[in-house]
Structures are given as structure tokens and as C-alpha cells.
Amino acid sequence: MEKERSSITWISGLIVVGALVLGLMIGKGVEKTGYASESYEELKIFAEVLTQVKKHYVEEVQTNDLVHGAVRGMLKTLDPHSAYMTPEMYKEMKVETKGEFEGLGIQIGIRDHQVIVIAPIEGTPAHAAGIETGDVIVKVDETPTKDLTLMEAVQRMRGPKGTSVTLTVEREGATETLTFTLIRDTIKIQSVRSRLLDDHIGYVRISQFQQSTPQDLGRELVKLQDEDTQGLILDLRNNPGGLLSSAVGVSEQFLQSDTLVVSVKGRDGRKDEYRASPPMDPQEYPMIVLVNQGSASASEIVAAAMQDWGKAVILGKTTFGKGSVQTILPLSDGSGLRLTTAKYYTPRGESIHSVGVKPDIVVEPKPITVDEEQKEATSSEENAPSSSEQDTDSDTPKDLEAELMKKDVQLQKAIELLKTWKVFKDLHPLESA
After folding, report:
1. Mean pLDDT of the region 348-375
2. Can you tell me the distance from the alpha carbon of 208 to that of 219, in angstroms, rounded to the nearest whole number?
3. 32: annotated active-site residue
């Protein structure tokens, strides 16, 4: 991975249905490679099969369809993250780094030949319907998903706004499969949100690592500093990842200059290092990073960097464990090849692929169902004071998000720890006489 290449590097390796939120590097073009004689002989077999199919198959078939099918089959033998993208999909992938797309709002991955939900995106059809992290999607409409590639699963679930799709889901603890009918919509992702909690604790939620995420985070941190923030909670739960450059840009806002954030190593053994070059002096206040099994790739890079350098306490559940890098190469017809080319390593030199980042403090979540959210929303509407009567105290919940945050046991544990941290810091023992 050459730093001077004009490319976009992603490392998510997961799919947001309708958007290709993947761990990738977009290369400049097709590499011209000469084939060895043995490779040429093997290609002769492919040409013979193609000729026989075209000549004798019971129905007429298009050569283009056969070639694309062969390419997809070839990449399927490698790993779940290597795939072929049609010209339309390749074009969408480049546009979708801006954080807007049409689809369901589900982040999925392939594990044990099954389509696994990494996380639903907040405020999307998938989230509203009650899709949960860990759900196994066994059918899309009437099509079984077992042994589908990641791209094939995406193609069956994506579609224009306003159209419907039915997902059949297996969920741990459920005695029967669950069925969800979702209406596709335009998904707009606000990658960074923040608010000031009680006792001057800042809260920042990053939902994806997009092109503008480091700049957006910087603005939110400045706002929190202006409000005298004395501790920070960085929430990376259910964040599937995104751009490598964005992960580095986020990490360096908490690290000293020239600090190693992540390294990438390919088959040739060469290691490329990405180091912090902070836009301003990092703030020195206690920090907790929230993660769960839906935190993947770029999220894991940030969490591991904070953990390895002792910048933050990691709290929650072990992360997903997506530690490979995919390179996207444009092909001559406008399509694209997504190929796993490297693995990334934490500052300690460890790979988290299929392992994940283990939290310093394990806290089991208490799931909040859609019914509970709706109940809270109704309660908030019924009990909300008029505009002239609203309490301005920061401890008073003013919206549904605040109500739900009070039921978030992982977040509440983080708040409790930061408050305790502050108590110990403020201890002033008497000096000996």
C-alpha cells in the first residue's frame, strides 16, 4: 500500500446494504501482468469450456455473462471480502463514501458461510423494524442466503427507495425464525454526534468513518472544550468501520505527534506505518471508548490505538475482529475488482483478525427493544412540559435519546467510572505538620 498513490483506503470489510462500506484501497488502474506458460495452459482450459458452453448449452447464453460468472466464482474461492463489482456497483461505491445511499441500513458480513448482521444503522428501516446485531439472515424474499458471497447478498437486498424486501432471520434465543418486511429508503448517515452529559462529561458517537469524519470530530471536540469538558466518552459501538485515513485522522486527535496508529503488512512482508500528525495539541483528560461486537475494522483500529498507548479505557464487549485490507482495482470496462491484499496490525504489532479488541472492562449490554423505544417516545410526549415550563437543568431528559441513554448500562458504567476518576483526582490530602 503505497502512501503516494492517489487512492482511498478503507478497512471496514463489512456491507451496509445499499452501500458498500468496505475496507478498501482504490488503486489507479489495471496492472498489466504477463502470464507464465503454465498459467497460459490453464487459461486454454477456460477458453475450451467457454467455447463448448457457447456451442452446446441447451439455451443461448451471452459470453459477457459467462465471463462475469467465472470471475465471481474465482474470487469466491479466496475469502468473503474479495469480489467482483459491476460498473454500477463500482460507481456507487465511490459515491457512497459521502454517507448517503438507498437501501435498508444493515451492516452485514459473512461468517461460516452465513450472512450475519453486524449492526443496523440508527434511524433506518432495518433499525425501525427491529433487526439486531448477531441476527443470521437465512432468506431474502424466497432466496436462501447460505453460501452467497457478500456481494451477492447485497445485490439481493439493495434496491430503489420505496420498494420492499422480506428478510427471514434466525436469532439466538428465538425458538422460530423471524420475518421482517422492510421498505427501502434513502439512508443519510451523520457520522459524528456529540452532547455534554452531567458533571462536564463529553459524549461523542461515531457511526461510520467517512471522508469528513476527522474534521467533523474536530469541530465537536472544540464545542465540548468550550463547555469545559473534563472527561470524554467515545462511542464506537455498532460502527462497522470505513476509511483507513479517517481512522488515522480520528486517532491522531488523541495522540501525540509521530505516534504509531496502525501498520499494514501484505504478502511481500513489507510494512507500511501510519503515524499521528495531530491538527492541534491533544486534550489530556480521562477517556473511555465504548465498543461491542458490532465495532469493526476502522473502529477496531481506533480502539486498539487508544488501548495500546494507554490513552483510554476500553469498555463493553469484544469487537468483531475484521483485520484485513481490501484493494479495489478499476477494470477496463468500468467494473472493479475488490481483493484482500493485506492485514493491519495494532501499535503493539498484534493482528485482531478473527480475534477482535478485548475490552479492559467487560460490561454486558441490556438490549432495548423497539417496543421499549416506542413506549419511551409515547411517555416523553405525554409527560413533556410546555415550552414555557421546560427545565433547563442538564440532568433532565429532553428527548427520546436522553431517555434511552439512561437505560444504556454500558454508557452509564462509563459515566460512573469518569465520575469516580474525577473524585480521585480532586483528592487533596493534608500536608504533614
Report:
1. 79
2. 16
3. no
Residue 322 annotated in active site: yes
Per-residue H/E/C for 368-431: CCHHHHHHHHHHHHHHCCCCCCCCCCCCCCCCHHHHHHHCCHHHHHHHHHHHHHHHHHCCCCCC
Q: Which residues are CB-contacts of 97 (< 8 A; sequence separation ≥ 6)?
A: 8, 10, 210, 211, 242, 243
Note the pLDDT of residue 136: 95
The active-site residue, picked from 82, 194, 246, 297, is 297
Lowest mean pLDDT among 15-29, 186-200, 234-248: 15-29
| C-alpha span between 168 and 140 (Å, rounded) | 7
| CA–CA dist 194, 200 (Å, integer) | 13
Q: Which member of 311, 322, 324, 335 is catalytic?
A: 322
Domains of the chain: 100-188 (2.30.42.10)
* Residues in Cβ contact with 208 at an 8 Å cutoff, skipping those fewer than 6 apart: 16, 21, 99, 189, 191, 239, 240, 241, 242
Select which of 191, 246, 308, 311 is catalytic: 308
The whole model's pTM is what?
0.71
